[in-house]
Write a structure and sequence with these properties.
Alpha/beta knot; 7 strands; seven-stranded parallel sheet; 147 residues
């Protein structure tokens, strides 16, 4: 799993906690190194967390690891997550609360999916989205979730 951290996103702790719950290999934080660890509920002590200064550095790491970059955001052109099977070898990339994935992150994605929602809110936060997306991966493959 990976999340952009340009504005000190408070959802990162929840993403780390979800990654631990689904046994993801690592969490990748792209952008700012500092993040609020309270939401991780101490799981950051057990979960591997890697930092990448730029989206380009993150994408280079993913390519070297043989992983497809899969964006999760409700952007125009996103395909419904509910109607697909995620790639087995992938890293799920989430954007910030509010703006979502940055333009460079969207361009770096091999595939882009959205999570169906029907209420009046524009989006669900990255912490919730990460749990839903990782569960979608687990339903397809069982066992530990992707990066």
């Amino acid at each position: 799993m990976a999340i952009e951290n340009w504005r000190h996103d408070l959802n990162i702790g929840t993403v780390v906690r979800n990654a631990n719950a689904f046994l993801a290999a690592e969490v990748h934080i792209v952008g700012r190194r500092r993040w609020n660890r309270r939401g991780a509920m101490v799981t950051d002590r057990y979960q591997h967390v890697r930092h990448h200064e730029t989206i380009e550095g993150f994408v280079a790491w993913a390519a070297g690891a043989g992983l497809s970059v899969v964006g999760i955001d409700n952007l125009p052109g996103s395909r419904p997550l509910e109607t697909t099977t995620l790639p087995r070898r992938c890293v799920l990339l989430f954007g910030q609360e509010g703006p979502g994935l940055s333009a460079p992150a969207r361009a770096a994605c091999d595939q882009l999916f959205s999570i169906a929602q029907y209420g009046s809110t524009r989006s669900i936060n990255a912490g919730v989205a990460s749990g839903i997306a990782m569960h979608a991966w687990i339903r397809s493959y069982g066992g530990p979730a992707p990066d």
